[in-house]
Design goal:
Strand content: under 5%
Oligomer: single chain
Low-confidence stretches: none
Radius of gyration: 21 Å
Distance between the termini: 68 Å
Length: about 130
């Protein structure tokens, strides 16, 4: 009627489960946070905010154990678009920093969000309103 299953089930534990490295939740959050900060650094460098970029680079270096590559190229994106992108990236970094209780990065991310919100508020274009910003 039915042929018996001759192969191992996908639910059966592997014989050599320890053959590949596992990362802890903390390590995964460090990697994710470093990625968000590196992306924020690229946009910050493009905006020409040197001091802020240096502070972000310090945190990336702390998380990765090596200094990050700095963004050298420029795009034709308007400053308002770059500020919106940087605000979103800083928000993502803030969420991850809060979940791993990294106070230094959380403060830095919140400061960057405030700076980009202020820059957008000072911009004359009407299309620079951030979602959720007042």
């Amino acid at each position: 009627m039915y042929e018996p299953i001759r192969t191992k089930s996908v639910h059966t534990p592997a014989d050599h489960a320890d053959d590949f490295p596992h990362r802890s939740r903390e390590e995964e959050l460090d990697i994710q946070l470093a990625g968000h900060l590196a992306a924020l650094l690229a946009v910050t460098d493009e905006l020409g905010a040197g001091e802020a970029g240096d502070r972000i680079a310090e945190q990336v270096a702390r998380l990765r154990g090596a200094p990050p590559a700095r963004h050298a190229g420029r795009t034709d994106a308007p400053a308002s678009a770059l500020h919106r992108r940087a605000h979103a990236l800083a928000g993502r970094a803030l969420v991850v920093a809060a979940s791993r209780a990294d106070t230094a990065v959380a403060i830095l991310a919140a400061e960057r969000m405030d700076a980009h919100t202020a820059a957008l508020a000072a911009a004359p274009a009407a299309s620079t309103r951030l979602v959720g910003a007042h």
